[in-house]
Structures are given as C-alpha cells and as structure tokens.
Amino acid sequence: MNNCEIKILPGMKFHFIGVGGIGMSGLAQMLVTAGCIVSGSDRGIAQPENKTIFAPLSNQGIELFAQDGSYCQTSTPDYIIYSTAIEADNPDFMAAPAIPRIHRSTALAAAMQLPNTGKMIAVSGSCGKTTVTAWLAETLSRANSATGLLTGGLVNLFRTSNSAGNYHQGNGELFVFEADESDKSLLAYEPEYALLLNIGTDHYEKDELVRVFSEFVRHIKLGLVVEQSVYKMLEPGCADHLVVKTFSTTDPDCDWFMSDYQSSPAGIKVGINHQLTIELPMPGIHNAANALAIIAMLDLLNKPLAKLLPQIGKFSGVWRRNDYAGKTQSGARVYDDYAHNVEKIVASFSALRQTISGRLIIIFQPHGFGPLGFMRNELFKALEINLHDDDIFAMLPPFYAGGTTSFKPTSQAVIEQYCLTGTKNYQYFAERLNAENYLDKHAGTHDAIIIMGARDNSLSTWAAELVKK
C-alpha cells in the first residue's frame, strides 16, 4: 500500500475504510472537529449492534457507506485513511487506486499537530490503556480542566447522541490518547508525556515488546510515568532525557505504591504510600494499579493532588468494561466485558470474584484466529492457576471480520487441548444458542456469567438478551 505524510487543513476530504473501528471512528470525529469533510465505510454498517458508534458519526455529518467502493461515485476524497486490518484488495482501494493512502497512525500523528490540540499524553502498555486514558482525561475534566481525549473505548461521561464517546475535544491544554503497540503504531508519535502501564503477552513476545516500548520512550519529549518492574526491563538509557515517576502495587521502592487494599460491600479502598486513602469506583488490583498510574501522572504534571484525588473515585467508566447487564431468570448476574488477552481476562474475572459468592461462568469469544493462536498456551497456564475448581471457562468460535488467510486454530481444538491436559472445567459452544441452553441448566442464583471478547459489539447485545430471557 502506498502511504504518505500530510498536513491536515480545514476543508480537506478524507475517507475512512473501516470507520466503525474504535480507533478509526475516534480519529474520524477528531477530523470533523478540525473542519474536515469525512466519509467512511464499514463491513458492519448494517448491523444493529453497531448503531452505538454509527449513529453519532452520522449525526456529526460523516457520510457512511457499505464497503463496496460506492463512496467514490458521488465525491472523490483527497486521501483514504486505513488501518492495519484492511487488506490490499479491499473494494474501496480497488474502486479508486489513484487516491493517496494514509495509515491511521500517520494520520493521527498529523492530527496532533492541529492548532489548539495541546500537550500530548500518550498512554501505552499491553493492558489497561483504554481505561487509564479515559480515567485520566475524566479526572482532569471533572476538575475544570477540559482535557482532550482519543481512546479505544466509549467513555460513558462523553457519550451523547452526537458523540460516540471515544473522542472528546478539550480546551487546548492537554490531550490524552491511547498509543497502540499491537501494530507498533505508537512509534509514530512524539508526545510531551507518556504513561507506560505494563508489558504482557499480547501481539508479540516479551523481548520484542521491551524493544518496542524502549524505542517509544526515546520519542517522548518531557516526562514518563512507568510501572516499576517495566522501568527495570527497559533498555538502559532510553529514559535518561526524561523526568520519570514510577508506580507499583507490590514494590514500595518507587514514587507511588499501594500500601493497602480493602474490598468490602461498602466499596474498595486503597492506601497510597502509607499516607493517603482513595476510593475506587470498581474492584480489582489492576484498577488499583491504574489509579496509581493516574496519581503519578498528576504528580508529574504538577497538578494539585488534594483537589484531584477525590475525582478519581467518581470515574464513570468505559462501555463494556465489566458492565453489569442484570440477572437471569435463575438469579445469576450477567456481566459484559471487552477482555481479550490473557492479562485482561484474568484481571476481569479476578476482580469480579470479589463481589460474588458463587461460581464464575466465563464465556469467551476470541477476537480472531491469529490472537487465539498467539495466546492459547499462556491463557491455559493462567486459567489453570486462577480458576477455581467449580468455575467454568467456555469458548465460542473466533469473531471473523475478514482479513485472515488462516482459520486455525479453532476454538474447539483449543478447548479439546485444555480438556486433555487441564484440571479445570472447560467447555466449547459452537453457537450462542448452545451456550444459552447450558446456562439455563447450570447458572445458579449466586453465580456470575461473564461475556468476554473484543471487536464484536453484538456480545453486549447478547448479554442484555440473556437477562431478558
């Protein structure tokens, strides 16, 4: 694919291939705010579960098309914006091969140079990027410091009929955005500040991630917040030019650490540095780590902590992050969650376990064949350690949105492998109806059902339907 760098100006025309993608839709809204003319196509344009994103885009004046090349019949854009997920033979490319093409990361880097965007805070790491990006921006905004936001989730506070919630225009002081390592696009940015949360088993081997994150740190201009163990893993000298603040939930030899964690029906309280106590809006040690990261960034930015710490507990959350859908007829509680890699899956159900007395019944839909193949062994190890004997882990077939050349491994093959060598209760469901029949028979009053998976918004709809049935 040809790719070019540009300067974004008002009145320019852009067409997004895959505009319903969480990253693409956010950037599309950002360009509309900048005075550009935007259109987009998507394979899922007609699917009702995607109205959550498509309706606000349309209300902002973004013209939407099926992904069949029809967009260029009425108007010719100046540039096409695409992501790594788009194939070279996509119909929108084939319909207008002469139109210059820009990768999403390149377009985002250009958008960050727009006037009045503000100083950049990039949030990266293998897990928690979306939550921390949203949480930091919302904390600052609640303290009358309207902060810009671009993230990979729909932030509840910013969702309206005219805003999907993954982009929010700030006042030009600060702009918080999610820097993705999955396609190494984070290396396209040169932010003033960055927050590096963790290094996990997602997309690349750990050694390669350390190299990529170290290179990313070299691009930062002013300051870095980083988890203590990650800081020790980075290549020597890569952060020598920066002001660095570290945090940890386990290691007190850092700037901000968790000195206490209490979970009760009255709420979650976290002790900080043996001096402060904050209340968390949701359970989980991983959320305590997220809160520590935010505190460390506020410290780095020289923001008034006394004023901002109470705002941390008011976070309204992100759509599909352990969202409670209701109870089934049998009384089992149903939750909807975006978790899709090993660390996120374990963090999600471990946090939920603190609030229930029964079993966990986890139904996971992998977000692609490639990701399933990459995580299958590490996921098995994590499940064997963290599942209780009476818990149930079930898998549906991978979500398929096109683009792959391999349809292996299948979920069925992975579950068969788990059953052969594992000690926990593993199930495979070829269809959602099979899962529903199983839940009707096995989900009890004190149990929690967690629907997990990324990219497929119909999972959220299904969670709500389980409650209605």
Concise account of the structure shown:
By secondary structure, this protein is an alpha/beta fold.
Topology, element by element:
Blueprint: E1 13-17, H1 22-33, E2 37-42, H2 51-59, E3 63-66, E4 79-82, H3 91-95, E5 101-103, H4 104-111, E6 119-124, H5 129-142, E7 148-150, E8 167-168, E9 174-178, E10 193-196, H6 206-219, E11 223-227, H7 228-233, E12 243-248, E13 256-264, E14 267-272, E15 276-280, H8 285-300, H9 305-312, E16 323-327, E17 333-337, H10 342-353, E18 360-364, H11 369-386, E19 392-395, H12 411-421, E20 425-428, H13 432-442, E21 448-452, H14 458-468
Parallel strand pairs: 1-2, 1-4, 2-3, 4-5, 6-9, 6-10, 7-9, 10-11, 11-12, 12-13, 17-21, 18-19, 18-21, 19-20
Antiparallel strand pairs: 7-8, 13-14, 14-15, 16-17
Helix pairs in contact: 1-4, 5-8, 5-9, 8-9, 10-11
Structural account:
The protein is of the alpha/beta class and 469 residues long. The protein folds into three domains: 13-105, Rossmann fold (3-Layer(aba) Sandwich); 116-312, Mur-like, catalytic domain (UDP-N-acetylmuramoyl-L-alanine:D-glutamate ligase); 323-468, Protein-Tyrosine Phosphatase, Chain A. It is built from 14 helices and 21 strands. It has helices at 22-33, 51-59, 91-95, 104-111, 129-142, 206-219, 228-233, 285-300, 305-312, 342-353, 369-386, 411-421, 432-442, 458-468, and strands spanning 13-17, 37-42, 63-66, 79-82, 101-103, 119-124, 148-150, 167-168, 174-178, 193-196, 223-227, 243-248, 256-264, 267-272, 276-280, 323-327, 333-337, 360-364, 392-395, 425-428, 448-452. The strands form three sheets. A ten-stranded mixed beta sheet has the order 8-7-9-6-10-11-12-13-14-15. Strands 16-17-21-18-19-20 form a six-stranded mixed beta sheet, with helices on both faces. The chain has a five-stranded parallel beta sheet with strand order 3-2-1-4-5. The model has no long low-confidence stretch (mean pLDDT 92).
